[in-house]
Amino acid sequence: MKAQAGTIVIIGAGKVATALAQSLSAGRKIVQVYSHSAAHAKELGNVLKCAYTNDLKKIIPTADIYIIAVKDDAIEKVASILRLKDKTVVHTSGSVDVKVLKKVSDNYGVLYPLQTFSAGGKLKAEVPFCIEASGSVVKKQLSALVKELGGKAYDINSGQRAQLHLAAVFANNFTNHIFAAAYNLMTEAGMPFDILLPLIEETIRKLKKTNPALNQTGPAVRNDRETIKKHTQLLKNNPQYLALYQLMTKSIQQTSRYAAKKF
Amino acid sequence: MKAQAGTIVIIGAGKVATALAQSLSAGRKIVQVYSHSAAHAKELGNVLKCAYTNDLKKIIPTADIYIIAVKDDAIEKVASILRLKDKTVVHTSGSVDVKVLKKVSDNYGVLYPLQTFSAGGKLKAEVPFCIEASGSVVKKQLSALVKELGGKAYDINSGQRAQLHLAAVFANNFTNHIFAAAYNLMTEAGMPFDILLPLIEETIRKLKKTNPALNQTGPAVRNDRETIKKHTQLLKNNPQYLALYQLMTKSIQQTSRYAAKKF
Hints:
Two copies of one chain form a homodimer.
Chain A: E1 8-11, H1 15-23, E2 30-34, H2 38-48, E3 51-53, E4 65-68, H3 72-81, E5 88-91, E6 107-113, E7 128-133, H4 136-148, E8 152-155, H5 158-188, H6 197-207, H7 219-222, H8 225-234, H9 239-262
Parallel strand pairs in A: 1-2, 1-4, 2-3, 4-5, 5-6, 7-8
Antiparallel strand pairs in A: 6-7
């Protein structure tokens, strides 16, 4: 099988692989998909109308771009088997160093979309993509891919990307957990969570304008001990939320003391 | 001075008092404002073109509704001095029990707007108001006020309101602090916080549809030890954020174990 110019092999058949594959423009030919699961490989291959395999040694060696979108801890294993000379090989991980691809090809990089994917979910418009490239050719290819995908490219090196991934865990996963706690506190007392939504939207609106530390409100930053005491009392039978409350309160006060010292 | 039907006295001249006063419809006459600061009383009185005082004993006794919008810990002091028989007296606090107003009047209640107010800020459209009333007359009056203010009324008793206030601290203040941490992590590594905004908006969008616990993603809920180890390593010189990371991770895993057991 001879690969066309701009042809792509997708390695992986999970949420990210599927979303990327389905969002690539019609002009771009996906020639093969790989999954370690034969069933998943076949399924995605059929959707994309392309070849599929569950054997890394049967990856077509003549495509132009190889996108490795497997689980973070499987990237190294994939990289240890693939040998693609000077083909462009990229992974899509937020937390894996670009260097793991050095042995696979002379031309390598990262194409990391900052989006939470659900099963069957597609790529959203203007998704930020962190790109990193071993050289100008790969960089050009990745910029073109991001453009085709309707995303927004940011040049982010591996050190930055690791920190970005950490920041995203705070901004996304941790806040979601806090929202879940608020949801439970509301439900527990027979109130609809909806009451809190306008307040949450206001917090997000302000977030877009300035450093959130400057918008900090609430009993912790005011050092309103009476209210903190009441809240602590309300949580006395909930050690999980009490621990969150106490640490968050301490941390807010720590930041505000630091800010007071600094400015 | 004879008060008109539907007349209001505003006790307090802070952010909440000012926003409520300025948002009340023209049909509603504010006859007096009070602040413990003579200057603030005069300033708001001039804006509203009404009488003002800094002496609780000079509060006009003949208005229809008295809105106490002073700091939480000052409400009790105000209530210990005011005696208004059967006039409607309400406070605007999220965390103070309605009962503190029992001695002030036979008709009392709470009118608690769930909005973070900035100085000079106005009331937003469709702000949720938690209302609580000693009886049906007060309840009718408060419902009418909320309608005039363009808000949305929820019947919330004092026990619920205490829990709501706690939930709002989680949903608003704690998440803001977490966003501030993410902001710092980004800035520290020379990246614009904007990269994270689409992800944050996606989290909020999902939040509106379902219990956030069902949307939990990230290394903690996946028990992705490698990534957690990397993140912990990145935070080794930042004990404040490390403590947040570790507790949040533990708490997410606790919730997910609980959910797994339950369903």
